[in-house]
Amino acid sequence: METLKKEVQEIKAVKSVKISGAEAVIRCLLEEGSTLAYGYPGGAIMPVYDELYKYRAQFHHVLSRHEQGAIHSAQGFARVTGNVGVVFATSGPGATNLVTGIADAQIDSTPLICITGQVGSHLLGSDAFQETDIIGISTPVTKWNYQITKASEIPEVFAKAFYIAKSGRPGPVLIDITKDAQFGELDFLYNKCIKVRSYKAIPTLNIEKVKEAATLINQAKKPFIVFGQGVILGSAENEFKNFMEKTGIPSACTGLGLSALETDHPLHVGMVGMHGNYAPNVLTNQCDVLIAIGMRFDDRVTGNLNTYAKQAKIIHFEIDPAEVDKNVKTDVAVLGTVKESLVEIMQFVNKGDHSEWMKEFHKLYEIEKETVINDQLYPTKEGLTMSEVLAEINKETKGEAVIVSDVGQHQMIAWRYAKFTKTRSNVTSGGLGTMGFALPAAIGAKMGAPEREVIAIIGDGGYQMTIQELGTILQTKAAVKIVVLNNSFLGMVRQWQELFFDRRYASTVMTNPDFVKIAEGYSIEANRVSKRKDLAAAIKKMTDSKEAYFLEVVIEPESNVFPMIPTGASVSDIRLS
Amino acid sequence: MEEKKNYTVSVYTENNIGILNRLSAIFLKRHINIESMTVSESEIDHVHRFTFVVIVPETLIRKVVLQLEKQIEVIGAFFHTEEEIIYHETALFKISSEHLYDENIQNKLKFRRAHIIAITERYFVIEASGLKEDIDNMYQKLKPFGLLQFVRSGRIAISRPRMAISEVLKEITP
After folding, report:
1. Beta-carbon separation of B29 and A164 below 8 A
2. What ipTM describes this predicted complex?
3. What is the pTM of this model?
4. Is A276 in the same domain as A185?
5. Which residue in the set A140, A195, A198 is minimally distant from B74, CB to CB?
6. Mutation test of the interface with chain A: which of B50, B70, B166, choosing the one with the most A Cβ atoms within 10 A?
7. Going by fewer Cβ within 10 Å, which terminus of chain A is more open, N or C?
8. All domains of chain B, ordered by start, with CATH?
9. Where in the sequence is the domain holding A492, given as residue range(s)?
């Protein structure tokens, strides 16, 4: 393999030592500063688990209740810390159970190292017990993957894997290790990888493009910023804020861009996309320069591409060359890290004031407030709305909590109504839309940020997809707060059935168990609330708790999330009802 | 609808297991049929070269090449139109010996880059090389004699414009 290793200086004097491949795996993780992994043991990964036992004082392994739970926990950990999440699974079903999480991490650019056991190399291809071609299966959804068949390969492959997972646009890497490679011996010497010759992690910044972008921005009368997760992944929150404040440009986030900028910042005009805010969606089609920062023009953001910001010049700040012109044709692409690009552009952009243009946003916000938000936050109907719950959580946490959301109506409500004051606070499955993500991801988020309040917002459908992870909470005492917004429906699908399928509620009605009893069965303090008058106290009791806590909120069954851009419609045709 | 064209895609990669899978997955994900494919060593030691032929619109091939290039073990990826390359394909035709002295066959061989490379009592083998159309032509002409076997190679192609792969390597090689 053509990799460049970090210069070995004094370490050179240290002699290499003979250890097993399995031990080398743990040593590699420790060398990379990783001391926590999630996983599930099984035959083909047992040598590694044996070493985990021996290293238990230095390395913490969390036993999940399903490999999908393990990988979502690792994702939650990676999302709040920015560090690489690590997962172990055995061969065959253990490995295939990771696939959903790998695909999720790939599309949401989450750095992961997935380590799977594999049958002995002499058995490869023989359809041995629990043999599966996880390299073949995971190839389309990994940033890189590799099968190790010799113990001696382990240090170099792990060094390369960590480098690839976290550099450039991050992503998941899978390492498959045959059982004989785990048992085999090697001379262990670890050198961190700093370069892979066939891989350019960060494109070279072209200062001319920065100047071109600055010229467009300086000339713009109605500029508009859309920022995404790239700001967070590139740790460019401050640089972004400086740029935005200097130029005075109204800025909206994508779903994954949430929390990169505090919600209450006067230039923050909300969220774009299918269930985003009215003003930024409508005004996307009125701005004269659209500045996309660390986002990828997902179809849920753009709606119909043929009518997306056609009047505007498009500037795209992006780290991944394959994202430029993929969905939206740009006028100026600034390739490189968002951080570096935004530092450079500061010398070329003028101090700006766009308060007249900003008024347009405020005007449309008032319309959204009157037609949607007030109804949600101060409903006249008896049934509780999801938005009220979020508002109450905001009040109790002052926007300082990590909000982990699952997928569906409650997720859209969480994105719309949760207030954020700190970055890396919105943990959610964006691109893949993986129901079942939130409960295990919240466990990982809590372990990654133990000092922070971590609140999982989950629907009654998604909750039951990974409900077994309550067992992980029981065993690890991870103090996550679980809020299930129960409308006894698969709400988002039901909403679509109501709007586009003449209310034929095919398989969206849920007969649910007693969630409180289930939580109590796992020794988790639990409560249920269904009346408005009890909501505030219930939320307060939950946030006051120092331990894991479960709260079920019974929600009005047939309420819809608005605004909404119907599939195929233009962003400016967003519906308010 | 944007017009579809023949594009020859050249991909320089490290010589590792599984790269073919990774590259073909990119075509598969976008529902693109691969018309032909050749893998070989390249002008650079330890660097392999994939040559794909696909029929797609230009906007799509641009995106596909960026996705190919994004793969960790891909050093560089390029696409060219038919006019921008010099290419060749080879085919082998196995025909029953009874036609060996048939004048029609002898005539076919005269004016083309085709010749007999093996003769046995039961059959003989013609090798032909050239552009895709040359092989297609030859195939049509020989088919009436009854082909016992027919096989053709993927395209191999050299680009007229420079593919700055050495520069890429220099830039990213330690």
Report:
1. no
2. 0.93
3. 0.96
4. no
5. A198
6. B70
7. C
8. 4-85+156-172 (3.30.70.260), 88-152 (3.30.70.1150)
9. 379-554
